[in-house]
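[Solved] Which block belongs to which protein?

Original post:
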Amino acid sequence: MNNYSQYVGIIAGILTGVSLLPQLVKIIKEKKANSISFGMLGVLLAGLCVWIVYGALKKDYPIIVTNSFSLLTNIVIVVLTIKYKDGP
């Protein structure tokens, strides 16, 4: 049963990790990020950092890897949001 729960965790982490990829692609294509909330991104980044620490404490590599990918994606979104805040 433990392997089954690990697979569920991996799938959940992958889906969470890729959830903001469409937003990232949209920002890159349009070079515009006027409606992105820094508050939401800040809370999300903090939560992802805590998940990574939690994964490290439990030595749970799926948690560490998937949340690290999410963190990287969100950092890129923050950088591009700052760069394109007022459009091209």
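(Second protein starts here: sequence line, then its structure tokens.)
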Amino acid sequence: MNPVRHIRRLAGVLAGLACALLAFAAVAPVALARPFPPRSPGWDKHPPLPSHRAGIRTVAAGGMPGWQIASIAAGAALLAATVAVIAYRAWTARRKTITATA
């Protein structure tokens, strides 16, 4: 195989990994973001009393905001499209061309 092809393939793999790292770096802070809990002046002196309906309250009050779900879905769609394009190009590069003889 031609050495230039090896270099080109290595450059393509490194570019793909750099794009994946960039996409992860762009989406991770948004996906992991959460608001700080409000703290009163004596928040560390007396822990809050447990609620008998703590499980129900958590389910009702918890959850992920819609913009976080949308950003995760957009990041997953971009990643899937990138993988599909890379796989398609790799498949077409390895395919043998058929030439018609007259």
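Accepted answer:
You had them paired correctly. Confirming on the second one: The mean pLDDT is 78.
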